[in-house]
Write a structure and sequence with these properties.
heterodimer; A: 55 residues; mainly alpha; 1 helix; rod-shaped; B: 504 residues; 21 helices; globular
Amino acid sequence: MSEASIVWIIMYGISTLAFFAVAAGITFYGIQDLRSLLSKANKKVVERKNEKREG
Amino acid sequence: MNFHLIDWVILVVYLAGTVYIGLRARRYVENMEGYYVAGRKVKVALGSATLIATEIGVVTFMYFGQLGYLTGFSCFILGLIGVFGYMVIGKTGFIVSGLRRLKVITIPEFYELRYDKSVRWLGGVLLFVGGVLNMGVFLRFDGIFLTETMGLGEKEKAVVMVIMLIIVVSYTILGGMFSVVITDFIQFVVLSFGMLIATIFVLSKVSMASIAHTVVTQYGKDGVDPITNPQFGWVFIFWMLVGSIALSALNQPAVSKSFASESPEVGRKVFLFSGFTLAGRYMIPMLWGVAALAMFGPKINSLVAMPRLLGTLVPSGLLGLMVAGMLAASMSTYSAYLLAWSTVATRDIIAPLLKSPMSDKANVAMTRIVAGAIGIFMLVFGLFYQLPSTAFQYLSLTGAMYAAGAFACVTAGLYWKKANIVGAYSGLALGAVAPAAFLVLSQFQDTLPKGLHFLINVNVSGFLSFVLAAAGMVIGSLLTQNTRPPVQLPKSYYDDEAGGKSYV
């Protein structure tokens, strides 16, 4: 195996690990963000329905 | 056929679930801003997931897999260049923070603020044409990928393309950015899992030693050195260094995720976190391509090699999960692209031609119609157009058609007070000339005089587009400062405290 190949394989290893590690983190925190976004959006949907009923 | 009952069940359940969730999101759309930018309420992790999901599709797997198959490890340089582009934007907020602060929905809206309405219209046309040409080949790659991994025949390719199109168009048209963000997140999780499955099976069946040996045997030094590799070289690397920043900051489907973020700071961070994954996003499918070279040798169709490898190595059951992951990647890309280009067509091309302004409802309705029309174009173009270069180079070049001019106009518009309307026109027009010449002339390369052959070198053409656009902006502006004095952005834009004000 040439030195250049070894360098590229190491870079591949680091990049792949970084991808899956960050993806795991984004998944974890993304669920919280998504919940927050949906709860705000749901509140607005309820408000709109109430406004329609009253109006 | 590689696909068995269990794979079909997984796939159908996944697709049905996604469409259901995407359609449910329709009820959250209360106004135009809700439809186009999800009410600008997206936070960092969700924004990063949706940006990454947008930028990973079957099409990216296909062109990176093809590059890996054709160039060995040399193409890994693109992963490093891509990280550079994202890090510049993620650390400094270059372009994206400024645009987010101005609360624009599309990039051409900025042209109207800084130049005038006619620049917005021309910029919108170039953005739309380049973007739709760029997107035109996506469906075809999906068709090839799915028929190869699932073990279907050539005849089923068109059917697969139509089904994919109907699914994505339906929920994107109805739910807008809310649907896109919610389904993108689910798709991000599923596609990451699909990539993990594929990587584990590829690396367990094809050893790294045999991959490295194949690269050296087949390509010699060119397989590990991007400078000597005839596909790349210095011109290509310079083009990509500039292009990685321009295409990252000005690719409307990607940057609209920054526009949807809850603040300019969040918009910047979305790019920073996405940047950490970028080298992996590029190199993972590239290695699948190199592994396909080790497995099948150099004589099969370079586009088909990587999906055939995955279809051969991944066992039934997991294959269904992996294909669901790949489809997830595609659907998130399509939905974001469809929404972005139909928004540009409606707001920047059609609306300025009308005598009276369009209502919010009419805006959204027109966007839906255009999204449907783009879908039909993708199907026809995907079935009949023959690529003049590698898939990656074609996509980079059509990207350069709009990004080169846009990069000159937006960068100068935000950071150079002398930028004026003449510079903007020159930058936009000259940025599109070289890529357009390549796309047309490459269809007649046998009859082209030798002196003009540099125009059909894809790397020269791509690099030239950025040089010409920048020259057009600088020379055009400097020569006409007195006759066409520059229009400045609202003074309060330069004051950070004014970040929350909308100028549109």
